[in-house]
Write a structure and sequence with these properties.
By secondary structure, this protein is mainly β. Helices cover 4% and strands 56% of the residues. It is extended and about 85 Å long.
């Protein structure tokens, strides 16, 4: 595995209350296609913070020790090692019992346009400390839009296979996280510290170019079980038709029906 990266970060704070920051980087990898249009991917982020608790109109609130508002937006990338941009062969672990030779098979048919999986994320949050920092916590709301995700797709059999992993998926994640904590001295030698975290996430497969879904793929899970318009973690199963007791030692089983 080989990677190349170049990056830069910058931030500026004014009056100890207002902060802006940004980052930029470009990445390349031998696990991505050798086409320069896809191999080098620019990733970046920008953010802003406001220490609103330091403003004059909040200084009279003695129970408020810290209040910070922040918002960020940026893009990052990921490499999926489950496929390759060139055909890949694999050899058997032991010789063939008839020929005595090691055999080979195609592990990946190759995807010449294999590129980075990309995720654009915005996050808005607030951090706070109250009552001499005895109560503290943070609240975050986020939206993650992932594109070019590796997912199985049916292709024409003239390519030598009927299915390949391509940059074919698009998923949207939305949710929030709330964290509350407390710390206090019960006695000079005993300190109480506790944390409570609540999170919620809802995702949806926004785009997936699949001509037809098959029951065996859906029940196996993974990207083969992604269905456009559904949650990517949906559990698919066969509808059980039940058992009829015939009054003998054996029972009659009905064949299950596949539901998508």
């Amino acid at each position: 595995d080989r990677y190349f990266s170049a990056f830069a970060n910058a931030s500026y704070t004014y009056d100890s209350k207002y902060t802006v920051s940004g980052s930029y980087r470009t990445d390349a990898s031998n696990l991505i296609t050798d086409d320069p249009a896809y191999r080098y991917a620019p990733f970046w982020s920008v953010g802003a913070g406001w220490q609103i608790g330091k403003e004059n109109f909040l200084k009279e609130l003695t129970w408020l020790n810290r209040l910070n508002l922040r918002v960020t937006y940026g893009y990052n990338g990921n490499v999926d090692k489950s496929t390759t941009f060139k055909p890949l062969l694999t050899t058997s672990a032991s010789p063939n019992i008839i020929t005595g030779e090691y055999t080979g098979s195609i592990a990946s048919y190759g995807n010449p346009t294999l590129r980075w999986e990309k995720t654009g994320t915005w996050d808005a949050g607030v951090d706070f400390n109250l009552f001499n920092s005895k109560l503290f916590g943070k609240i975050d709301f986020y939206n993650k839009h992932s594109q070019d995700l590796i997912a199985a797709r049916e292709i024409s059999a003239v390519n030598g296979t009927t299915s390949m992993k391509l940059n074919n998926g698009e998923i949207l994640n939305r949710g929030f996280e709330v964290e509350l904590g407390s710390t206090m001295n019960i006695t000079p030698n005993i300190t109480w510290t506790g944390n409570l975290r609540v999170s919620y996430n809802k995702n949806e497969v926004k785009s997936l170019k699949v001509a037809q879904h098959y029951g065996y793929q859906l029940t196996e899970g993974g990207s083969g079980a992604w269905v456009e318009g559904e949650d990517m973690n949906t559990l698919w199963c066969y509808e059980y038709a039940g058992v009829v007791n015939t009054g003998s030692e054996s029972s009659t089983f009905y064949s299950p029906t596949v539901y998508y």
